[in-house]
Amino acid sequence: MELTYYTTDDLALPAKGVIRKRQSIAHFDTLAEALRHFQSLGPSMHKSLGLTDGAHTLELVRRVSFFEDDREGEDILAADLPSDPVWSQVPEAESAVRTCVGALHLRYMLCPDAVMPIPTSDQLPKNHRDKYLWLDQAHNRNSAIRWVYIAGTGWTSLKEWTSHADIHPLVLRYRVDGMTENGAYHPMDILPWEYPLLLRRTLARLCQNTGGTRLREQAKKIHLSSRKTNRRKRT
What we know:
By secondary structure, the chain is an alpha+beta fold. It is built from 5 helices and 13 strands. β9 and β10 (about 155) form a beta hairpin. The chain is globular.
């Protein structure tokens, strides 16, 4: 697939009087050229970097501000390949994501309802590998989440977070209901990317115990999504 790359800047530049500066777009044949230009735009600019095949575009990196008084912001991963029907199976897109994460030292990624830390592993830490989530009777995916830690706000309920998800807060940690191998209640403080791994493990165990086809399909979808997401940190 033949791809080209682009950068944009002044995505949110305020108007000066009745005049608003036009958005600037630059095109490049290689990702290396696009990255150099993106970095030259400076830390205080509203900017974006992406790729295109001529018919479709994929935003790779975006500069965002997490707080109202933050004038510089931070670059975050904007591409969500596992949920993108156009780009999820394109090797060049996956390679571009890995390159951007490494070259720009990205720490966070844009998710559907928040900005969250980029996964650093495809495995749970040792202290969680023998734990499971305590889901509700319907096995709803997010039912084990009790509290989320939002930067600049602190711990808040899942309901409060989801009611403000449209502003994409920076979510750093979850507090969840969990259990041990023996079924004893065990609350856990985890990183957001660890939750899908625990969920997959939990649904797999429930599937073994009940033989449920629906649970098996849920676990399979979570496994595939986690594999694609965790490739972002691999080199």
